[in-house]
Amino acid sequence: MAEPSHGGRRTSTRMPPYRAVLAVDAEEYPRASSYNRRILHNTVRDALEQAFADSGLEEVWRTASFPRSGDDGYAVGVDSEYLPLLLHPLLGEVQEVLGDMQPGLAFEDRSLRLRLRAAIGLGPLPDGCGRERGDGIGAAVAETRRLLAAPALEKALADTDPDVTFLVAGLTARVHRDAVLGGYVGLNPRRFQRVAPALPPGGGGGSAGDAYLYIPRPSKRPPGAQDGSGAARGGPDARPRGRTGAALFGAAAEERK
């Protein structure tokens, strides 16, 4: 922001580079048992890394900005030129990776299932390559975080078949305008549906913004489908039988107050 000079006059300062922000978190994580929470948390990074690799984005993952691991998720920033690739092919690869992971998770606990919400934002963010405090702190991260918690995103995932759809994603209006409508994403723009705005929590600072929903593999939730929280561990078929080699990822961006 502009700062006052020694003479009392305001001076301009350079704006930080634009970064695309990907944040993801796991459905029903708060309902999972402590044992299953450990499984989900420990597999977060591996699945994200695998999806980047399957998308041909290994170097992007390796050089990602301000990666953050939360209790139930993960968030990362990348150079804005890679924004279209986060939407496609990455989100589709995440869906595939999660589908491949389900048998391994069921081996750990037959009731355990991983389904994720993702949010993608864009904006100027400080990036000192981890050398400075405050890296990745800015409005773009806050907006992405609000979108990740939006009721529209939560409902979109809850309304799908838990055995078919493992990921739903929300895009901020800026991401949709610049990447999708800009023609840089290899998907039909009609695949992205406008949804209710993501309101700031508790009516706090920041304004509501349009959001756009994308589901790589759409489906409809069948009657009587159960969630995959793994909350009720117990019985001989639910005993832990070793670590799974598969990985889950979710994300929650931490915002400095």
What does this structure look like?
Helices cover 30% and strands 20% of the residues. By secondary structure, it is α+β, with helices and mostly antiparallel strands. It has one domain: Nucleotide cyclase, GGDEF domain (Alpha-Beta Plaits, 2-Layer Sandwich). The protein has a seven-stranded mixed β-sheet, sandwiched between helices. The protein has a two-stranded antiparallel ribbon with strand order 1-2. α2 (44-54) packs across α4 (83-108). It is globular and about 70 Å long. The model is unreliable at 202-206 and 229-257 (pLDDT under 50).
Largest sheet: 7 strands, mixed
| Form type | globular
Q: What string gives the helices and strands in order?
A: EEEHHHEEHEHHEHEE
Instruction: Summarize the amount of helix as a percent range.
Output: 25-40%
Region (Disordered): 198-257
Observed structural traits:
257 residues, alpha+beta, Alpha-Beta Plaits, seven-stranded mixed sheet, 9 strands, 30% helix
Kindly summarize this structure in a few lines.
The protein has 257 residues and is α+β, with helices and mostly antiparallel strands.
List the helices and strands and how they pair.
Elements: E1 3-4, E2 10-11, E3 18-26, H1 34-42, H2 44-54, H3 58-62, E4 65-69, E5 73-79, H4 83-108, E6 116-124, H5 139-148, H6 151-158, E7 167-172, H7 173-180, E8 193-198, E9 209-214
Parallel strand pairs: 6-7
Antiparallel strand pairs: 1-2, 3-5, 3-6, 4-5, 7-9, 8-9
